[in-house]
Amino acid sequence: INTIDLLPETVAKEIKQKREKELVRKISSTSGVVCAGMLSFLLVTFVFCKLCLNISETRLKKIKPKLQEALLLRSENERLAERQAIFQRIADDRKDWSKVLYEVSRLIPRNVWLISIETEARLSSEREELTKSSKLRLKGIANSQNDLTEVLVAFEGSSFFLNVQLLYAEKIKTNPGSYYIPIGSLRFEIIADLKD
After folding, report:
1. CB of 99 within 8 A of CB of 114?
2. In this predicted model, what pLDDT tens digit does every residue of 105-127 receive, in sequence order?
3. Residues 6+ apart with CB under 8 A from 124
């Protein structure tokens, strides 16, 4: 099928040019609207991000001192927990002194008198571990060398004491006068470690 164009060529060219101009105008206006929309979207996104950043910065400024305080409290809490653990270990190592004193009274024979009982507790920290050692120091008077030997043997055989040592023993040559001590008796001092 052949078509015949009844419009003069100049008119057809004008119509064609008008259509092309209209198409270019529509494309330009559509592109402008799309670009304007994209710019508006970018601007709104930028403003929103800037606003969020400002809010985050003000919150951070408010939180930062509290965070520093919390970190200080945390380190202080850890330090106190370490000290509490030390005190708890010391408390767990406490001696039942009534049992120790009962054992001492049971071990002292009839002809021996105690003048004083002292304890020494030492804390030592080796390899970051706390250890506690306690010593018992006994001063007294024995009627004879045999009585003093009996005390030493009894303490060495006890389940309460270790490392029993006689620090000194001397004969009493004169009566000190404050209480009666038979002349010829022995004044002595014994030291022993307490078992855990």
Report:
1. no
2. 999 998 899 999 988 766 555 55
3. 130, 131, 133
